[in-house]
Amino acid sequence: MQKKISGMLSSLLAHPGWSHTNMIMILAVGIGVLGGYGAVGFRKLIDLLKLLFFQGGAGGDLLSYAWTLPWWQRMLIPAAGGLVLAPLIKYFAKETKGHGVPEVMEAIALKGGKLTPRTMLTRSLASAITLGSGGSVGREGPIIQIGSALGSSVGQLLHFNEDRMKTLVGCGAAAGMAATFNAPLGGALFAIEVILGDFGLAQVTPIIISSVAATAVSRHYLGDFPSFEFHPPPMSSPYEYLFYAVLGLAAGVLAWFFVSTLYRSEDVFEKIPLPEWIKPVFGGLAVGIIAIWLPYVFSSGYGSINLALNGQLTLAMLATLIFVKVIATSITIASGGSGGVFAPALFMGAMLGGAVGALFNMAFPELTAPYGSYALAGMGAMIAGTMQAPITVILIIFELTGDYMIILPVMAGCILSTMVSHRLLGGESIYTRKLVRLGINLFRGRDLNVLRGLKVGDVMNRDVSAIGEGEPLSLLVRRAIAHPHGTYVQLDENGKISGLIPLRKILELMRDEDLLNILVAQDVAQLEFPVLNPEESLDEVVRKFDGHPLEEMPVTDPANPGVPIGVVRDYDVMQAYRSAVIHQDMSEVVAHNLVRDPERKTVELVDGYRMIEVKAPWDFRGKTIRELDISHRYGVQVILIRKKGNNGEKGKKTNGTEIHFVPRGDDVIEEDDVLVLVGDNKHLRRFMDI
Question: Would you say 229 and 194 are in contact if contact means Cβ atoms under 8 Å apart?
């Protein structure tokens, strides 16, 4: 079936007057419709599970219903949700933990936009269970991941290249966001600014189309009305802009506090000596204990937000709920619950805005409007601070309420909150913080992400310039002149590294002849220095070079700690990066040509170079790309591997399905793999003879 679809696609693309652009636009509509149905279906699933867990409270009125329950039910229902979630985590999908959006961003940065249908299904079920049982999370993150997985699945089915795959993932993310909030503009801009970070026309147009299509579907089934029915009164005086500015600054600090608390909570739960699958039970119980007195924290908390917008909560309750929601959401996610952080951030912002507005109203009653307006501005400021995307948030807040009157205060609050939280969080958002903790840095483009696939052993130079601790400095100077190295490695009597002497240090000391005759190596050696492992990824090496003014770093033998086996030069790392980027770009071009013409086995390049496909030799099987060292042994580059696809279970192949990917050092050659090689004719013939 998949081959038939691919063949139909190739025929369409070959037709004069037809192009990939036409295909992308049609697919954007389809993904938007699917994303809209996915969002509607997910909300219906949450309502169904609310009925099962609470025996009522579906349709968004969970707060009112929760007050009617006995205290022990409010305490135990979230724990019951964790108990239901436990076998799903243990036996089916450990990756359900978390809030979804960082996983989409990781797939775009490192996996060419590839998400599995299994991710969509397990995330949907786990998040619905968490939300349906009162877990303090939102539905937006899972819906975005569902839409993104739909877009990715379509792209994989049609063998699209990486750029088009990312566009389809963005279409799915926009569809999910737009459908859940009835916000087509906000959904599209969220996908462009937050998920892709790319405002190119080729990405913008299909994403907007998907967003509109998804919104049309959600409006048909859920109605055409804003998520929050609130019409803010006009500002009472121009002085209120100062009050909103204070709110923006406070929201920036709260965004930092929330993000920091969330990830510190994850660290705490990681250290608890319990199986991962049982932790959601205890997390649910903790949320249930809070809900005995404050059921406002249940689920997304939209009912509580409406109370704040309409001025129905006291100042003391507003201030309390800010911090209670931070704790409840952090515990839910850190313990293994599944759900988004968008709605909880809206909740915190509404409570903060309400509290700040109430305080200013008490101090300056003639100059301030009712605090509901501040609650709305606080929602926008808090989201902007956590997501680091003020433009998207301003549009979303407008579409959430359908009212333009509050837009200027919202803009002021969003910009100031973003500035403060950007400084406090070191430029990270609530989404990218998770990726940085995993070693994935999106701010520096694709540099660290490319280098993450390379190891120290790939670029290590085994020429170590070692010196003894007692070697006279005058002798070291002569050696530096005859055989200059960026860094000299000092060894103790056991042959282990005891210090480093950078070349620049030697050059500085050369000016003083008296010191040269007195000092020995250990007198000038740098005693604090980084040490590398051959299996360490180069993105970590880049961070170490950033933190230490060295041109070379020693690599030690894992079997003999402290014994140097080589050095890595900053120049070698940069060369590896350039080669990897060129390699990746060429691979994407070749992969695109192969997908469009699957029968093509050779491509003539330039000046005697060509690309060929060969079946992997039998003695390559079971070995990694790094072990084979094909480029050094044969003078050719493996730029792509064609591999039989699988259904997600190790060892089980799906007949007729092929996947194409750029190889990394740890990738293992398997039976029936086809290697796509690039090289000159002489070296290619030599490889073919093995």
Answer: no
Which is nearest to 672 in space by CA: 653, 689, 690?
Answer: 653
CB 287 within 8 A of CB 78: yes
How many Cβ atoms from other residues are within 10 Å of residue 560's Cβ? Answer: 12
Question: Degrees (nearest 5) of the Cα angle 28, 34, 40?
Answer: 135
- What pLDDT score was predicted for residue 579? 64
Is residue 229 domain-resident?
no
Indicate left, alpha or beta for 485 from its phi (over 0: left) and psi (-120 to 50: alpha). beta
Query: What would the two tokens of residue 514 be?
Result: 């008296």
Helix extents (H) in 517-629: 521-524, 538-547, 570-596, 625-628
Residue 652's SS3 state is coil
655 — pLDDT class (breaks 50, 70, 90):
very low
pLDDT greater than 70 at residue 73: yes
Report DSSP state, residue 233: P
The Cα–Cα gap between 448 and 453 comes to 9
Structure tokens at 684: 């290619």
CA distances from 663 to 437, 502, 584, 630, 634 (A): 24, 36, 9, 12, 17
**Rounded to whole angstroms, how far apart are CA atoms 529 and 59?**
59
CB 677 within 8 A of CB 638: yes
Q: Are strands 466-468 and 487-491 parallel, antiparallel or unpaired?
A: parallel
**Contact assessment for residue 337 and residue 86, using Cβ atoms and an 8 Å cutoff:** no
H/E stretch holding 495: none
DSSP 369: -
DSSP tally for the chain: helices H, then strands E? 30, 10
Q: Identify the domain boundary among 222, 254, 272.
A: 222
Residue indicated by tokens 């579906």 = 58
User: Nearest-CA neighbor of 566 among 576, 575, 558, 554?
Assistant: 554
Domain that includes residue 118, residue range: 2-222
CB 386 within 8 A of CB 354: no
- Which 8-state DSSP code applies to residue 622? T
Q: Which residues contact residue 675 at a Cβ distance below 8 angstroms, ignoring those fewer than 6 apart? A: 613, 614, 615, 616, 638, 640, 641, 669
Q: Quick one: three-class SS letters along 330-357? A: HHHHHCCCECECHHHHHHHHHHHHHHHH
Q: Are 324 and 290 in contact (CB under 8 A)?
A: yes
406 and 341 both lie in a single domain: yes
In this prediction, residue 249 has a pLDDT band, given cuts at 50, 70 and 90, of very high
- Whether residue 58 has pLDDT greater than 90: no
Residue 642 is given by DSSP the state: E
Residue 412 and residue 369 share a domain: yes
Number of domains into which the chain is organized: 4
Are 380 and 393 a contacting pair, CB within 8 Å?
yes
- pTM equals 0.69
Distances (CA, A) of 466 to 404, 487, 492, 548, 570: 70, 9, 10, 20, 19
In a domain, 678, yes or no: yes
